[in-house]
Amino acid sequence: MPPLRIVFAGSPAAAVPSLRRLLAGRHELIAVVTREDAPVGRKRVLTPTPVAEEAERAGIHVIKANRLGPVTDQLIALDADLGVIVAYGGLIREPLLSAPRLGWINLHFSLLPRWRGAAPVQRAIIAGDFETGASVFQLVAELDAGDVYATVRRQIGAHETAAHLLAALAESGAELLTAVVDSLADGTAVASPQQGEVTLAPKLSLADGRLHWSEPAARLDARIRGTSPEPGAFTEIGDERIKVLDALVAHGDSGLDAGRIELRGGRVLVGTASDPIELLTVHPAGRRPMRAADWWRGRPPGASDRAANDAPGVAS
Asked: Of 123, 206, 223, 295, which has fewest CB within 10 angstroms of its CB?
């Protein structure tokens, strides 16, 4: 079968492995669509997306757009056989949705229909799921609802962060995606309707990182890992907001009242509804990340030893 003419849409680093595999494959990548350059870092330097950088190195035509509406006619005129989308960050609507001969396929980092939406990896960890994966499905107008061509499954490690899990799924998902593209080209691809309970994975907000110390340690640990690196887990001690970058469940340590902080043998422990949480690395507001013990010892005499402990869903 002849190679397919493909338009690829993607933006973050998680989409780069898929782009690389398509570039190395037997099909023709005719254009890459990605989001516009955005300010990055403290100096707010305008920076291309990781996908844009990879495509430009490969000499592929790059179209930068935060919304596809203004570039729809340009994309339709490319006369692609297939559209491929991996974490682009925007919706594909008609008439672009139906423009390629084979439509659009999407690599999504969950086992659909679980965790449809923008933050499937983060939501899976926060919810305490033991397993997740990646799915390649036919894009339809409804959010992440199309028939599925293939999936790959993966256990979620006990200490795995969202960043680590997403990087791993980006690699295994890229292999899955290119296999589906080849099967579409060969006319052997078969898609099946999604089956099971639908759960939603909306984009994380700052509030999703708030730690409620009245919850059990396992749930707090999952929230810390699921919001790493963004938006980041945090707690408040008096007027000070502290990001919790790394922590673990202190199994076997005697309990502390929920939200009570104590230094024991050089370890900073915070009480929960079950075992304490040991803070390993923290990022105090306006300072650099540091070892939790160094931060705690450097606080002024008489400073509060209790973290804010509002109930889940209640603003502090």
From this structure: 206
Phi, psi of 175 (to 5 degrees): -65, -45
| Residues linked to residue 242 through DSSP beta bridges, in sequence order | 235, 284
Q: 23: number of CA atoms within 13 Å, CB side?
A: 17
Secondary structure (3-state) at 262: strand
> Which residue has tokens 């782009």?
19
**Pairing of the two strands 28-34 and 233-237:** unpaired
Q: How many residues does the chain have?
A: 316
Q: Which two tokens stand for residue 12?
A: 């973050």
Specify the pTM.
0.94
pLDDT of residue 309: 76
Percent of the chain with pLDDT over 70: 98
**Tens digit of each residue's pLDDT (9 = 90 or more) over 86-106:** 999 888 999 999 999 999 999
Euclidean distance between CA atoms 21 and 73, whole angstroms:
27
Are the C-beta atoms of 134 and 166 separated by less than 8 Å? no
Kindly report, residue by residue over 101-148, the tens digit of the pLDDT.
999 999 999 999 999 999 999 999 999 999 999 999 999 999 999 999
Query: What is the rounded distance in angstroms from the CA atom of residue 245 to the CA atom of residue 242?
Result: 9
> What whole-number distance in Å separates Cα of residue 25 and Cα of residue 2?
13
